[in-house]
Amino acid sequence: MNSDYAIESHGLTRRFGAFTAVDHIDLRVPRAQIYGFLGPNGSGKSTTIRMLCGLLTPSEGTAQVLGHPVPGNAEALKQQIGYMTQRFSLYEDLDVEENLGFIADIYCLPRKTRRARIEAQLERYDLIEQRRQRADTMSGGQKQRLALAAATLHAPPLLFLDEPTSAVDPQSRRDFWETLFALVAEGTTILVSTHYMDEAERCHRLAILQRGRIVADGTPTQLYAGMDALVLEVETDAPGPARAALDSLEHILSVTQLGVRLRVLVAKAVEDAPERVRSALAAAGVEARVQPVHPSLEDVFVLATDSDGAEP
């Protein structure tokens, strides 16, 4: 295994009977970075993470996580990873400090350092005032901070986060990501799954998954540059007729309405695409302003998943 990577996999596959949940995934996750899995529900994100954690045996393929073969050395690996799920794996009938104490027992933290470590986590994750509060009475944001405090209590060099912000408000999500960047600055590697485009754009590198396969992989900048499409924004007071006119055009890959604006993906091979779109709209009697715009990660996602879906 290359020491520059915290995770490497080759042909990683998981089948459940006749259904293939993860289909020959190759991964290289650099150390001290945030690597994202972006994809809809059922795309294989959680199943892949469970295999990499040693919780699920691959049907085919190999993986090494922090130098450990998976799932062959799962017990040793458990001491070096943190795992946080979207359901906040807390004991709701225990208070904050009791939850952290229980996790300390699970990871066999030495008695002489355990108390100091718990206090440090309470302070870092802004939980001092909630230390005696039962987990089931906490807000979504507080539960999220407690779950992350528990997942990092033993200072793991690798952290798996499975859709960790699906049940919290936007401000809590923003604060959560600031905490993740602080962990990375300290040397932690993070693999995070999400279906939020704005979160995926925060990752140093990401993979887009669709039906158990990686359909795109790279830094956000690389994914934008690799798009085989031009993105046009159409602003009009008649988005419905404009969309109808564009949907019938050859080489239009996608049309998405955003209020009075349309976001249009046109095959990159089309020459003078903005003028062609303007002409088509004018022919349909639609007044509009058409201009090229910088692609978004949602554009990359739509193009990658639509292309995948078109395959036989």
Automatic annotation (TrEMBL):
<feature type="domain" description="ABC transporter">
    <location>
        <begin position="7"/>
        <end position="236"/>
    </location>
</feature>
<dbReference type="InterPro" id="IPR003593">
    <property type="entry name" value="AAA+_ATPase"/>
</dbReference>
<dbReference type="InterPro" id="IPR027417">
    <property type="entry name" value="P-loop_NTPase"/>
</dbReference>
<keyword id="KW-0378">Hydrolase</keyword>
<keyword id="KW-0067">ATP-binding</keyword>
<dbReference type="GO" id="GO:0016887">
    <property type="term" value="F:ATP hydrolysis activity"/>
</dbReference>
<dbReference type="Pfam" id="PF00005">
    <property type="entry name" value="ABC_tran"/>
</dbReference>
<keyword id="KW-0547">Nucleotide-binding</keyword>
<dbReference type="InterPro" id="IPR003439">
    <property type="entry name" value="ABC_transporter-like_ATP-bd"/>
</dbReference>
<dbReference type="InterPro" id="IPR017871">
    <property type="entry name" value="ABC_transporter-like_CS"/>
</dbReference>
<dbReference type="GO" id="GO:0005524">
    <property type="term" value="F:ATP binding"/>
</dbReference>
<protein>
    <submittedName>
        <fullName>Sulfate-transporting ATPase</fullName>
        <ecNumber>3.6.3.25</ecNumber>
    </submittedName>
</protein>
